[in-house]
Design a protein that fits this description.
Elements: E1 2-6, E2 10-14, H1 29-38, E3 41-51, E4 71-79, E5 82-85, E6 90-91, H2 94-104, E7 129-131, E8 138-140, E9 151-153, E10 158-159, H3 162-173, E11 181-184, E12 203-209, E13 212-218, E14 235-237, E15 242-243, H4 246-256, E16 262-265, E17 281-284, E18 290-293, E19 305-307, E20 312-313, H5 316-326, E21 332-335, H6 338-341, E22 355-358, E23 364-367, E24 379-381, E25 386-387, H7 390-400, E26 406-409, E27 428-432, E28 435-439, E29 450-452, E30 457-458, H8 461-471, E31 477-479, E32 496-499, E33 505-508, E34 524-526, E35 531-532, H9 535-545, E36 551-554, E37 570-572, E38 575-577, E39 592-594, E40 599-600, H10 603-613, E41 619-620, E42 658-663, E43 669-671, E44 675-676, E45 682-683, E46 687-688, E47 701-702, E48 710-715, E49 722-724, E50 740-743, E51 746-749, E52 769-771, E53 779-781, E54 799-801, E55 806-807, H11 810-820, E56 826-829, H12 837-847, E57 870-872, E58 880-882, E59 887-890, E60 893-896, E61 908-910, E62 916-918, E63 928-935, E64 941-948, E65 954-959, E66 962-967, E67 970-973, E68 981-989, ...
Parallel strand pairs: 2-5
Antiparallel strand pairs: 1-2, 1-3, 3-4, 4-5, 4-6, 7-8, 9-10, 9-11, 12-13, 14-15, 14-16, 17-18, 19-20, 19-21, 22-23, 24-25, 24-26, 27-28, 29-30, 29-31, 32-33, 34-35, 34-36, 37-38, 39-40, 39-41, 42-43, 44-45, 46-47, 48-49, 50-51, 52-53, 54-55, 54-56, 57-58, 59-60, 61-72, 62-71, 62-74, 63-68, ...
InterPro entries: ConA-like_dom_sf, EGF, Fol_N, Kazal_dom, Kazal_dom_sf, Laminin_G, LE_dom
Disulfide bonds: 651-663, 671-680, 703-715, 705-722, 724-733
Domain Laminin G: 1059-1240
Length: 1243
């Protein structure tokens, strides 16, 4: 450690040995006397700077207490011209100076006479202040007169001078903040994202404004498509929701303010939608690929076997089937029933989802589920915890010895099932097409007969509970065995043996079948050419007709193939009918209340009414039908003509808006949700559509007007349209024109939006009030309570918000929207379903992959962006994608109408197979260029390339959603990103370039002069091989204000370059130095080679002078191509399948951050995502690329085993589309072939 001390001279003081106790020495006379005896020099000095020697780094324990400008006394010894500090430094004070003075003069020590303490000696003023001689108060400096060099403070802020820093330090000292000089000169620019903590899904974006780096957190606005890369592949979120890509997941997390992460790459449930042949089950295989397994085509012969799981199966086929379904190793333990052959599991009771396993030593023990599939089928358990799937829940229950069951499917607290409590045990709520549905649990094929209380014999107790669940009947186990009398009873036509109350066995048909719509995919075609809703309905019909009917195939019969039956109907002979046999006089206890307020005599009558209506009628509690009494006086066997008798009263209640026709003493009728008035004849404020109740709606609908974009909360009562303000669009005023954004003031230009600084400019919503803050931005404070009693019954109903979330009541929605000041309003009552068209549109946008066209329905401008169109709503029509003002349709897209003459427009269509160049003799030297291009797809490539005489070509390229201007080797990127339209104007004069992109102007100065003559101008291509083409439409092109017409452009063809072949033998290698290529974010490597041997290193690229550098390498290991790379925090690699020797192969590697893909001969071989913390490949200065072999051991020790000389032929090597200049060589000769590489070989 070196200290620079200054008194009148400057000394370099080296600290070698200092006591590590870090104690402050007391400057006693004896201590000072010892310093005089042991030291060569004693001096007082000011510390002007502190530095550390790297070669012999030793940091003194108390060095952190030293600061620049501190005054200390140093005791030094001289050792060969170097001053050593062997004692701790002493602080300066008058008594210390007295002690040093008397000892140096060899005089007796005298205590200093007490003097009257000055007013400023009572306190020590902080740095940057001075004591007032009259007041004794520390006062900060008012201004700085002397301007010195810039200094950097410890707060990472640059100050104009040391004086300015001291003034700031004095002010901060009063607040308890310490500020000192960190270094001389301005502070180095830090990444402002380090001090910014972004929310879920947000990206930190850095912009430079007036030389200052500013960071802000923004939501992803666009998700680019990278083809088959991992970044553009579907992902499964931690909430069990599928997204098109990780970018779409982050976008949803950001918009919903929810912490959502990637759980799996790929779909949550790959088996969902994967169709397997009849009798097989979908399971996950290698890399979570769906596979069809477990054929159920087992014979029904009775040859009972006892498995090692302690369960009895009908035959060995059923045992293997159970082992496949449960993914367990179950084998036959003994032939016969387990209770007859004495299975050790008979005496074992395994609770908490455990299963009994028979060991080879004939002992039994309970085991917990050990392995579960990597699949996301979230379930909410009874303990309030969300599990990835039911298997994980059972595993946790077994390991903790606590009973945990499924409460509902889906994440706890999220989704339609979270607030749906209408499922009766053992039913479980499952979300189907965004709606809650009660389903019954599935069972295994274990054979352990039980006799139910309904007289039916069931294969096991689980199937008994399943039957009770399906029929909604109370069935319990009467005893464990086959029902008495049914053992010898044989039933035909799908009937089952039932022991009735008279204890006599009889055959009963399966009358309790679940209802399905004809469009749910459950239809089957019977051998009688009749289409049934399900296989259960087929067996039911066959049993009643006493006919032998079996399923011919799944799906509709030919006569019913194009017939679409309504809910509950069955197609017979091409005609849809309601086939129900309801009892004539059901008991009163069988009455069921429907959601339409009608009290039905039985469940069969409710199902018949649903069939006749063509829509399901849900069962409701009896209290729901308190005002609607019904009777069925004429119920026949067919039940086709039901007469509903409604008893009216004299209350004159509105038949549409009220529950029944009764009223209280004040004449107030019982209104439906959202309905108001004494007679229930109109909707509540902010509700609309009482006429829709007559069409089947359950209540008036919320207006759902945007809080930001609408002028008022109520809406038009027949259409629900809202009154918009400040240019807002759409029925709900939730859209803005292109170039505008929705803010609290309505639609404002994107460039004009400013963050409110005070309550005058801040507008609070949802009942909040603005509270100013002197230290920061104003805040909207919400009320502590919420009272919605004035709304009646609708206040306590679940409600669907415009964000697609179901809330328990209106107060919960309002408090959430108020707390976050979000534009969230109610759009429908109940859980989010089809009544919420905003939510329906959002789900369609997530799931619909159909490409938008002009005229397609839309709800947001982003949906039409690819067409350069806008989402436009015209009176009396739905919102569709259409061209806005100043644009017109051309070849299926919108193009801008320029103020040019018709014959000045070019409208040249380029694609991936065409190349064009400008054929104009007058185009030789020019200084202005204007063009407009519409990109048909987000593909990188060259828009225009001008070949010049001095080889400083001008090239306009589309890269990373930005426009890049290249002049020779220099380049400048546009500050703004582009989508599909590029309006560009270039002007240059000597070395200055001005370009205007979509209205934004930039200026750049190049080193060279831009005045060379133009040889040729290529359009939509760079004119090189391989070509970098674009799929685009060039609207117009002007050169020096002279338009280029279609007759001025000609197609051209360039033959590909002939690649030279390099042969490698006996440690031959190529060496390229200082490539200086930017591979930090993405890396593309393409190599064509013919291997002679199974092992060999093809190339290795790194910075040999840095032992901790990043690197990439490509090698053959056991005939398998391996790409190995180091990003700074761990080795990663990706490998393909074996390739044949002595034949040509082309391998392409594509790396985007951590995602790497390998293509072998044009086919995707492997994808991999690195687990490294870093995502950048840093190979910058002094880089070296070795091809074929790495000599002299300069390869990293991590991949030293890969350094096997490559023997074979190499034809082409490209890195980021840049070809590496190879040359045919002999591996025995040494030759210099170029300035940028050296070819060498070992003799």
């Amino acid at each position: 450690m070196r200290l620079t001390a200054s008194l009148f001279i400057f000394l370099w003081v080296t600290v070698w040995n200092i006591d590590g106790s870090c104690l402050k020495p007391k400057a006693t006379r004896s201590y000072v006397h010892s310093l005089f005896e042991n030291s060569d020099v004693i001096l007082a000095g000011i510390i002007s700077g502190i530095s550390y020697r790297v070669d012999s780094l030793y940091i003194e324990p108390c060095a952190h207490r030293l600061l620049a400008s501190d005054v200390r006394i140093f005791a030094l010894t001289n050792q060969q011209g170097t001053f050593l500090l062997d004692a701790p430094m002493i602080r300066v004070s008058l008594p210390v100076f007295d002690t040093f003075y008397t000892i140096s003069r060899k005089q007796a020590h005298r205590k200093r006479r007490r003097t009257k303490q000055a007013i400023c000696e009572a306190s020590l003023c902080p740095f940057g202040s001075k004591c007032g001689l009259k007041t004794g108060v520390c006062e900060c400096k008012a201004k700085c007169r002397v301007v010195t060099d810039v200094v950097c403070g410890s707060d990472h802020v640059s100050y104009s001078s040391f004086c300015h820093l001291s003034v700031r330090s004095c002010v901060l000292a009063k607040k308890g903040v310490r500020l000192r000089v960190a270094s001389k000169g301005p502070c180095k620019k830090r990444n402002p994202c380090e001090d910014l903590r972004c929310g879920p899904g947000e990206d930190c974006v850095v912009n430079q404004i007036n030389g200052i780096l500013l960071a802000q957190c923004i939501c992803p606005t666009q998700c680019p498509n990278y083809g088959d890369s991992v970044e553009s592949s579907p992902v499964c979120s931690s909430h069990g929701v599928d997204y098109q890509s990780s970018c779409h997941l982050r976008h949803h997390a950001c918009e919903s303010k929810t912490n959502i992460t990637v759980k799996f790459y790929g779909r949550c449930d790959p088996c969902h939608g994967h169709k397997c042949p009849n009798g097989q089950t979908c399971q996950l295989g290698v890399d979570r690929r769906p596979e069809c397994r477990c054929s159920e085509q087992c014979s029904m012969n009775s040859a009972h076997v006892c498995g090692t799981d302690g369960k009895t199966y009908m035959n060995e086929c059923f045992l293997k089937l159970a082992a496949c379904k449960e993914q367990k190793d179950i084998i036959v333990w003994k032939r016969g029933n387990c209770n007859e052959v004495g299975s050790p599991c008979e005496k074992m009771e395994c609770g908490f989802w455990g299963s009994c396993v028979v060991k080879p030593d004939r002992t039994a023990e309970c085991e917990c589920p050990s392995k579960c599939e990597d699949v996301m089928r979230p379930v909410c358990a009874t303990n309030g915890e969300t599990f990835d799937n039911e298997c994980e829940m059972k595993k946790k229950s077994c390991e903790t010895k606590s009973m945990i069951k499924v409460k509902h499917q889906g994440t706890c607290g999220i989704g339609v099932c979270a607030t749906f409590n209408s499922c009766k045990k053992p039913q479980v709520c499952v979300a189907v097409d965004g709606k809650p549905k009660c389903v019954c649990p599935s069972c295994t094929d274990e054979l352990k007969e039980v006799c139910g209380s309904d007289g039916i014999t069931y294969a096991n107790e689980c199937k008994l509970r399943n039957a009770a669940c399906m029929t909604q009947k109370d069935i319990f186990v009467k005893y464990n065995s086959v029902c008495e009398g049914c053992k010898d009873k044989k039933c035909d036509f799908y009937s089952t043996c039932v022991v009735g109350d008279n204890h006599k066995p009889e055959c009963k048909c399966p009358d309790d079948c679940p209802l399905y719509e004809m469009s749910q995919g459950k239809e089957v075609c019977g051998t009688d050419a009749v289409t049934y809703s399900s296989e259960c309905h087929l067996r039911k019909s066959a049993c009643h007709q006493k006919k032998f009917i079996v399923m011919a195939f799944e799906g509709k019969c030919d006569e019913c193939l194009h017939v679409q039956c309504r809910y509950g109907e069955e197609c017979r002979g091409g005609v849809c009918i309601c086939s129900y046999n309801c009892p004539a006089n059901p008991p009163l206890s069988a009455r069921i209340c429907g959601e339409n307020g009608v009290l039905y005599p039985s469940l069969c009558h409710l199902q018949l009414a649903s069939c006749q209506k063509g829509a399901p009628i849900s069962e409701m509690p009896p209290s729901h039908c308190h005002s609607a009494q019904t009777s069925f006086p004429d119920i026949g066997d067919g039940g086709a003509d039901h007469k509903l008798a409604i008893f009216l009263d004299a209350c004159e209640c509105n038949r549409v808006g009220s529950f029944g026709h009764t009223c209280d003493e004040a004449g107030q009728c019982k209104c439906r949700p959202g309905v108001s008035g004494l007679k229930c004849d109109h909707c509540l404020p902010s509700f609309w559509g009482i006429h829709l109740i007559a069409q089947g709606a359950l209540s008036c609908r919320p207006c759902g007007c945007s809080a930001f974009g609408s002028a008022r909360s109520d809406c038009e009562q027949t259409t629900g349209k809202c009154e918009c303000r400040n240019g807002a669009l759409g029925d709900k005023c939730n859209l803005c024109p292109n170039g505008f954004m929705m803010a609290a003031e309505g639609c404002v230009p994107t460039t004009d939006y400013k963050t409110p600084r005070d309550c005058h400019s801040l507008r609070c919503f949802h009942g909040a009030k603005c509270v100013p803050s002197p230290a920061s931005f104003p805040d909207c404070v919400c009320p502590q309570t919420c009272n919605m009693d004035r709304l009646g019954v609708v206040a306590n109903m679940t409600v669907c918000g415009s964000d697609g979330t179901t809330y328990s009541n209106l107060c919960e929605l309002k408090m959430f929207a108020c707390k976050h000041q979000m534009d969230v309003v109610p759009v429908s009552m109940g859980i989010c379903d089809d009544e919420s068209f905003e939510v329906l549109d959002r789900l369609q946008r997530e799931q619909n992959t159909e490409e938008k066209r002009l005229g397609s329905p839309c709800s947001r401008h982003e949906e039409c962006e690819k067409l350069s169109a806008q989402c436009i709503t015209r009176p009396g029509r739905k919102s569709v994608c259409d061209c806005g003002e100043g644009w017109r349709s051309h070849q299926g897209i919108c193009v801008e109408i320029f103020k040019k003459r018709k014959y000045d427009q070019l409208e040249l269509a380029t694609d991936l197979k065409s190349d064009w160049f400008v054929l104009r003799k007058d185009v030789t030297r020019f200084s202005k260029l204007s063009l407009h291009i519409h990109l048909k797809e987000k593909r990188e490539g060259t828009l225009l390339r001008m070949v010049t005489e001095d080889k400083k070509d001008l090239e306009i390229v589309h890269e990373n959603r930005r426009i890049v201007i290249k002049v020779g080797k220099a380049r400048v990127e546009s500050l703004q990103t582009i989508a599909y339209n590029v309006s560009l104007e270039l002007k240059w004069r000597r070395n200055e370039l001005h370009f205007k992109l979509n209205g934004e102007i930039q200026k750049h100065t190049f080193d060279g002069v831009l005045d060379s003559s133009a040889k040729k101008i290529f359009l939509g291509s760079d004119g090189k091989w391989p070509r970098s083409r674009l799929n685009a439409i060039i609207g117009f092109l002007e050169i020096d204000d002279v338009p280029v017409r279609i007759a001025d452009v000609k197609p051209f063809y360039m033959t590909p370059e002939i690649s030279r072949i390099v042969k490698f033998k006996e440690n031959g290698y190529l060496k390229f130095e200082n490539l200086n290529m930017d591979v930090r974010e993405k890396t593309f490597v393409e190599i064509a080679f013919k291997p002679y041997r199974t092992n060999g290193l093809l190339f290795y690229w790194s910075v040999p002078s840095d032992p901790h550098t990043d690197f990439i390498a490509f090698a053959m290991i056991d005939a398998k191509p391996h790409f190995v790379y180091e990003l700074g925090s761990g080795l990663s690699y990706i490998r393909g399948e074996p390739i044949p020797l002595n034949s040509w192969h082309t391998v392409r590697i594509e790396r985007f951050a951590k995602d790497v893909s390998m293509y072998v001969n044009g086919t995707l071989a492997k994808k991999y995502t690195s687990q490294s913390k870093n995502a950048h490949l840093d190979i910058l200065k002094n880089d070296v690329l070795f091809v074929g072999f790495v000599p002299n051991g300069v390869i990293s020790h991590k991949v030293r085993k890969l350094n096997v000389p490559f023997e074979g032929e190499l034809q082409e090597l490209r890195i980021n589309e840049l070809p590496i200049n190879l040359i045919s060589v002999s591996s025995y000769k040494k030759r210099e072939a170029s300035d940028n590489y050296i070819l060498a070989a070992n003799n």
